[in-house]
Amino acid sequence: MTKQPIFSEALGVDFKNPALLVTALTHRSYLNENRTIKEHNERLEFLGDAVLELVSTEFLFHKMPDMPEGTLTSIRAALVRKDNLDKAARKLDVGSHLLLSRGEDAGGGRTNPYLLANAVEAIIGAIYLDQGIAPAKKFIELHVLTTLDEILAGHLYQDGKSRLQEIAQDKHKITPTYQVLDSVGPDHEKTFTVGVYFTGEQQGQGSGKSKQSAELKAAEDALEKLGW
After folding, report:
1. In the chain, fewer beta carbons within 10 Å around the N or the C end?
2. What is the mean pLDDT of the chain?
3. DSSP per residue, 164-211
4. Transmembrane ranges (predicted)?
């Protein structure tokens, strides 16, 4: 029988097949230097993403019975997005247990938010395969869905433009305006740079492949700079 990984204790899961957890923690780069391991975590990540979305949807459906579908969709997106999963990964110290190539490790892979978030999804997939939906649901509720109150209080389920406009109007009774500062590249592949302004004073700046995406980046930049 495969030895139970020590990390399983921190997860609160006694795996029937401990190899699943090892796979969940294995980044594709590790396979280049370790021929004894044949599978990386991307398939488990794919499965875990689907389980996470189902559990989150059911949780919100029962938790917020009067909330319209559109708002529930936005809240769910905030719960399952990479930065929220990264928070869960850091609390669980997932980075210390990742199996990475030497190069990926030296390049900061253990603190890479994208890799950490993907590993959490893979862990969810491993728990689901090994234990079924109930333990996977318990794990998600304990380690991912606990940020719901924070997301609601900070209106973090809204996109950057909506949040910036709401806070600016509430705090200062002003409406942000956006201005294209630059556009480079051919017509079919332009990159736009946009500034966001309060009464003529620039508060943030962002770039994107469309004016809309650049405006979102500018709003997010302003939110960060203003500490909102």
Report:
1. N
2. 92
3. HHHHHHHHHS---EEEEEEEES-GGG-EEEEEEEETTEEEEEEEESSH
4. none
